[in-house]
Write a structure and sequence with these properties.
Chain lengths: ~425, ~220
């Protein structure tokens, strides 16, 4: 007990402490190679922890930001062709998916729904002059642009008036505009889709799209947005897809329905209510409900599991590093028995001997920790450069690693230090 | 000043009890210069360890500077050593990775002196033992005599009342040994109590008193 109080006294005296640290560094520098080799365990332990955390955090951040882009307050409904439909004969027309009535029912009967954004998706060739490319025509309402939050590059978005007048206007994504219109001035151009011309009134930035956590993002790279009313009038509900000589006809009213919920905490209950409602009207199950929030939660849970696994690996590698340090410190105590005897004879208290050896161990392990942080900072850069994976070195990982390496120093230094202090000064002085 | 009263030290060696000190009573007056002599196994080393507060007697009392130190705890014995005692050893016992200055400063470090004060005191002491030009050297770069002078400077750093020396000339040639004994003579004149363990009559002749040990007893004093 007295020894502990003495030790605390010794460690908290700043002037003595800094001198002891300096002495510790000096002593360790006497055996540079040995100290370096001893540190390596902690260096690689800390380095690999930080590197793995950086890769893990980078991957999960990307997944989470993709999911977040879908809108955590949104529920996304898709029309899907059910299995039995697909296997049936080609000539028959398959009728499936969400209906206009579904949208109205969801909007009108579920009080937590703020608004709904329907979309018809029609793949169709578009032409400007001699150029042709297949676009995804998206018939939707102006609210679409509130949900996907893409930057408007030029012109305007779709407006309520366009919807009411069934105007032949379209908003292109940047990518579609570039490919179709090339160098020509973009706005005011007319693109031809089927038998009709649509005036380009706006251009929005395109995102990479793709899938996020298994959910198709609502927008794609080459979209052309037209008013839903226009789409219904021009294209109807029947989509004809010709491929490899066969003709596939399907009748779908709405391909996609994005439901925005009023509050974040209502998302899950609303999703359940929608599911229940749809089950009643769609016994064939020709729809799919995706909840980005649930996916986000799942991604976060995955990240947590990942962190636990990492933590265990880190724990083991640091344990090995710590044992290495302890081993060397025990050897050092034996080697310096005479010195300990001298110090004790002069009047050093046990706590001061413990302090001296403990500081040496902590200096050793902290230096290993700092080097490890450097290693852990470089490895993700290399991974990012060669493997193209996004990495983020989280701040907490650095603080945690430093803390842990100091902790390792204390944990594995205390026993050798106590052994040093327990030496009988008379015996220690006689040691050869 | 330094007095032992019926001090016994008994070691248990297996089943056998070894009486290293068997009822020693003696008083070393302040400022006296003693040589402690005797054949090996006579108990003189045990006596020195007890006098140096490195060990506790099995029974009896040891009074140092008016305080009974015979049954003090380890930490208190450390404090006593730091305050009142200075050690000089046969094999010098300097810390090899520290410089001369740092070796001399060691007791001051444990007394909690500020670095500047330590340095000033170390220089002063090095001058006293004529090693002011060797302050930055390591012990291995010095001759035996020089190392022992560093050890003496270190023993003096805390301004001790008692200096305990264990065969301080045992590893030195006779000329160097005389020089070292000359230093002890000077310290004696400065009023330090000096207790030297030796088996050489020549060394013992420097002291004012000679204490002869035999089988754990005081054989004779002259």
């Amino acid at each position: 007990m007295d020894t502990l109080i003495g030790l605390i006294e010794f460690m908290t005296n700043i002037s003595k402490f800094t001198r002891s640290v300096r002495l510790g560094i000096k002593t360790l520098l006497l055996h540079k190679l040995r100290s370096l080799l001893t540190m390596l365990g902690v260096v690689f332990g800390v380095g690999s922890v930080i590197a793995m955390l950086a890769v893990g955090t980078g991957a999960s951040e990307e997944a989470q930001s993709q999911i977040r882009r879908l809108g955590s307050q949104n529920i996304i409904l898709h029309s899907v062709q059910s299995q039995q439909d697909q296997s049936s004969e080609r000539v028959r027309m398959s009728i499936y998916g969400l209906t206009y009535d579904d949208e109205v029912r969801i909007r009108e009967t579920i009080p937590t729904v703020r608004r709904t954004v329907p979309a018809k998706l029609i793949p169709h060739d578009a032409r400007v002059g001699g150029r042709t490319m297949e676009l995804r025509i998206v018939g939707t309402t102006p609210a679409w642009f509130d949900l996907v939050e893409r930057e408007l590059i030029a012109g305007r978005r779709l407006q309520q008036r366009d919807l009411e007048t069934r105007a032949n206007v379209c908003v292109l994504t940047e990518r579609s505009a570039r490919r179709l219109l090339a160098t020509e001035t973009m706005l005011g151009n007319r693109i031809r889709v089927g038998a009709n011309y649509y005036e380009v009134v706006g251009i929005i930035r395109s995102e990479t799209g793709g899938t996020a956590g298994g959910v198709q993002t609502p927008d794609q790279e080459v979209d052309a947005y037209i008013p839903l009313s226009t789409a219904r009038e021009r294209f109807g509900d029947i989509v004809i897809r010709r491929s490899e000589g066969s003709t596939e006809r399907s009748m779908v009213q709405l391909h996609q329905l994005v439901v925005e919920v009023d509050e974040l905490e209502n998302v899950e209950s609303t999703a359940a209510a929608i599911e229940q409602m749809l089950q009643r009207f769609h016994p064939r199950g020709d729809y799919r409900v995706s909840v980005p929030l649930a996916l986000l939660r799942q991604a976060e849970a995955t990240q947590r599991t990942f962190n636990i696994v990492l933590g265990s690996i880190a724990g083991i590698s640091l344990l090995v590093g710590g044992i290495g340090i302890m081993n060397i410190m025990l050897a050092s105590v034996t080697e310096r028995t005479r010195e300990i005897g001298i110090r004790r004879a002069i009047g050093a208290k046990r706590s001061q001997i413990i302090g001296q050896f403990l500081i040496e161990t902590i200096v050793l392990s902290s230096a290993g920790g700092i080097l490890g942080i450097a290693v852990g900072g470089i490895i993700p850069q290399i991974i990012e450069y060669f493997a193209g994976m996004p990495t983020i070195v989280p701040m907490y990982a650095i603080v945690l690693s430093l803390g842990i390496s100091v902790g390792v120093g204390i944990l594995f230094g205390i026993y050798p230090a106590i052994r040093a202090a327990r030496l009988d000064p008379i015996v220690a002085l006689r040691h050869e | 000043m330094v007095s032992l009263k019926d001090v016994r030290k008994i070691y248990q060696m297996g089943s056998e009890k070894v009486r290293a000190l068997d009822g020693v009573s003696i008083e070393f007056s302040r400022g006296s210069f003693w040589a402690i002599m005797g054949p090996s196994g006579s108990g003189k080393s045990t006596l020195l360890n007890l006098l140096g507060c490195l060990d506790r007697p099995s029974s009896g009392t040891y009074t140092l500077a008016g305080e009974d130190v015979s049954q003090l705890e380890d930490d208190d014995l450390s404090a006593i050593r730091l305050k009142y005692l200075g050690f000089v050893f046969q094999s010098f016992n300097l810390i090899s990775q520290l410089t001369v200055r740092e070796n001399i400063e060691l007791p001051l470090f444990y007394q909690g002196w500020e670095p500047q004060e330590c340095a000033a005191r170390a220089i002063e002491l090095a001058e006293q033992v004529e090693l002011a030009d060797r302050l930055g050297h390591r012990p291995a770069e010095l001759s035996g005599g020089q190392q022992q002078r560093v050890a003496i400077a270190r023993a003096l750093a805390n301004d001790p009342r008692v200096i305990l020396a264990d065969e301080p000339t045992g590893n030195l040639d006779s000329a160097t040994g005389d020089h070292i004994m000359g230093l002890f003579g000077e310290l004696h004149k400065l009023g330090k109590t000096i207790l030297i363990v030796t088996h050489e009559d020549e060394i013992a002749s420097w002291a004012d008193h000679r204490l002869h040990m035999r089988d754990g007893h005081i054989d004779r004093i002259d």
